[in-house]
Amino acid sequence: MKFYQYLENILLEVHPLKKLELFETFYAEYKNGSVLFENEYLARSFDVPSYSSWCKIVPPQDVPKRKNLTTKEGQIFLLHAIAHIEYSAIDLALDAAYRFHGLPQSYYDDWLEVADDEIRHFRMLNELLEELGSNYGEIEVHNALFEAMQRTAHSFLERMAVVPRYLEANGLDATPLILKKLAKLPQNEMLKRITKALHVIVSEEVSHVQKGDCWFAFACEREAKDKEIYFEIIERYYPLWLAKKKDLNIEARRAAGFTCKELKTMAHTDVCQ
């Protein structure tokens, strides 16, 4: 089994469950040492996300808003929105392993492990959707994460800054806020299961951001850049992001590798020592 060719096949697979099955076959072979890295392989550009024939893509502002989370419809909207993030994150992790060559073996170990986690998260959420009578692909989605993957395809340094240290790290902030809202609602079995799934996801996402932090530091050292370039990169991709008020998950971000200096800059106040 050839590493880059098989990863390309997985990335191109349009059927969600088929994609998961292809990865699980590949990952089992990878872990037992049966996958060979090609000496030369030209990574292709992806013009559309793999889910483009499965989901209706709309601008982010047109994605249906989460409604009353005590209702079945509200729970479906919430689960679908998070399932889409997790599904998109599968391709982001796979593309990180597929696109950037000549790195230490541990790099590929890390991003395939992340993909495996994201698949497990997606399965958890989609199972809950199915129990509510829905499924992934039945609600409109946006492609903001795919666009970030496209825009950073040219730079290992920028990919590690933008995807794990910005986009995934934002999830460390957002998920606890959702959990707080859920905790205030009258509880039923489905809400309890959604809450449990989100706790699993946010706890495991810390390690994903930490992996990104490690490889961002590696890229900075390799390119003789100071890690402070992070702020310059993110400002270029997401103008004025630093000026916006942020509810930072300080504990999770610290565990994931953010320094107090970085967090103070983002929070505009002294948030840690």
Give an overview of the whole structure.
The chain has one domain (55-267): Ferritin (Up-down Bundle). It has ten helices and no strands. It has helices at 3-12, 16-31, 72-99, 105-131, 144-151, 156-183, 189-222, 229-237, 250-255, 260-267. The N and C termini lie far apart (49 Å).
Feature tags:
Ferritin, mainly alpha, globular, 273 residues, 64% helix
CATH class assignment? Mainly Alpha
So what's the overall shape? globular
Distance between the termini: 49 Å
Query: Helicity level, as a percent range?
Result: 55-70%
Q: State Rg.
A: 19 Å
SS field, number of helical segments: 10
CATH topology: Ferritin
Domain count: the total is 1
Largest sheet properties: none
Question: What's the assembly state of these chains?
Answer: single chain
What's the pLDDT, averaged over the residues? 95
What order do the SSEs take from the amino end to the carboxyl end, as H and E?
HHHHHHHHHH
CATH architecture: Up-down Bundle
